[in-house]
Amino acid sequence: MVSDSVCTVTDAGKGQPSRQSLRGLDSVNVLMADVRDGVGPYLSVFLAGTRHWQPGPIGVAMAASSIAAAIFQIPAGLLVDGTRWKRALIAGSGLFVGLGCLLIVLSHGFWPVLAAQAMLGAASAIIPPAIAAVSLGLVGRRLLPARISRNESFNHAGSFAAAGLAGVFGQYVGTDWIFYLVCAFAVASAIAVVLIRPAEIDNEIARGGEDPQHADRPVSFRDLLRRPHVGVFIGAVVLFHFGNAAMLPFAGQVLAKTHPGQDTMALSACIICAQLVMVGVAWAVGRAMRAGIGRKPIFLVALVILPIRGVLFSFTSNPVGVVAIQLLDGIAAGIFGVISVIIAADLTRGTGRFNLMQGLVALAVGVGGTLSNVIGGYVVQGFGYSVGFLGLAAVATCALLFFLLLMPETRQDDIPNPDLQPTEA
Fold first, then answer.
1. How many CB atoms lie within 10 A of CB 133?
2. Which of 30, 115, 190, 395 would bridge 91 by S-S if both were Cys, CB 3.0 to 4.6 A apart?
3. H-type alpha helices, 208-294
4. Taking CA 129 as the corner, what is the angle to CA 126 and CA 130, rounded to the nearest 5 degrees?
């Protein structure tokens, strides 16, 4: 595992963060893993099994969080770019997620749950860019790849632990306690944020500026969109998630039809095993970038995996086979979680719009996921699951060709230098 004991020189004018701040950031990434996504798929289980809601209202409640998150992505990026209170944003957003979970579990009406879900979606839009901004502001641009790799490793480890705890709580204590578990993580993450020393966060660097001694006004939203290759990258992200998002839900539906009673266990195994793979992949991506491998070839590995996964899903409905194939998603998603942040930092260098760019990326993820589920769903309904999987594989192939032909390498002058690298733990 890569350590964060950093060198004496990072970016120009950037001081060395303390071990306390770096350990605090580690803790935030572990604890926020369960908070930033809220209760996720457990909400539908809770509303159907405990509240006895019908599928229609459950679908609306599930969609409320996604819609709110999409609406707030760009405002969240602007907010993180514009404020010096980034630690407070992380802590406050986490606590809002906890409050929303309490509202869901303590209320019985449709509108309170809908409001709580909107609250969760809005808060979840702020957490990822705020954590990335604090990371950049602490360690500087040169050490950002190693730091983001470490963040993702801790985040996936936290997701793995949270999934295990949620399964135990839901099975032996009650589904209600999954919501209380998220609340506990939210409070703990707010406490962990205090460990990060605000004086060590360079706010100009944290928003993608070059030199805190010569800080200029950030570029406008329109100018950001006009920057070279920003549109290409956003398009590639949409296509990536268009080809990816619906694969696991479709696999779950196939299992429910062909192996009733084993579907829930198999899906849990898919999630847990994929998270374990993501931990190792996030670490490996950081090592690869430190070794001088560019961003483009690393992302191409993820893009190559997607169509292979879609084709393999079209040939099997065996639970063991589905879990094995889903391990490929651990590789692709683990790569995307790290490399998307680094490419966003590369493309916004000197603009002061690093976090706005992250909001655009997150919005692209949501658009791609929506297209995948809606269009893929109608394809499956009309032509069957095999055709649906192959259709997603075709979109994934388009994503691969689009990125390969139109996107250049974005790594600039952060060529690995042994004197500027973290040491090994």
1. 26
2. 190
3. 221-226, 230-244, 247-258, 263-290
4. 75
- For residues 292 and 425, which has the higher predicted lDDT (pLDDT)? 292
Nearest 5°: phi and psi at 53?
A: -80, 155
DSSP bridge partners of 2: 424
Closest CA to 200 of 362, 14, 6: 14
Provide the token pair at 282.
Answer: 């996030």
The H-or-E segment that residue 114 falls in is helix 110-139
CA distance 278 to 327: 9
Give pLDDT tens digits for 175-233. 788 889 889 998 999 899 999 998 888 888 888 766 544 445 777 778 888 888 899 99
**Rounded Cα gap, residues 316 and 325, in angstroms:** 10
Domain ranges of the chain: 18-207, 222-411
Q: Facing residues of 424 across strands? A: 2
Distance from C-alpha of 412 to C-alpha of 207, rounded to nearest angstrom:
18
CB 421 within 8 A of CB 6: no
Let me know if 47 is exposed, middle or buried by CB neighbors in 10 A (0-12, 13-18, 19+): buried
The yes-or-no answer to whether 18-207 and 222-411 have a common fold is yes
- The dihedrals phi and psi of 2, each to the nearest 5 degrees, come to -80, 135
pLDDT digits (tens, 9 = 90+) for 364-412: 988 888 788 788 888 888 888 899 899 999 999 999 999 999 999 988 7
Tokens of 299: 């992302």
CATH of domain 222-411: 1.20.1250.20
Distance CA 147, CA 345 (A): 13
Q: What's the fold here for domain 18-207?
A: Growth Hormone; Chain: A; (1.20.1250)
- Over residues 22-47, the pLDDT tens digits come to 999 999 998 887 776 666 666 766 77
Report CA 225 to chain centroid distance, whole Å: 22
Distance CA 155, CA 383 (A): 38
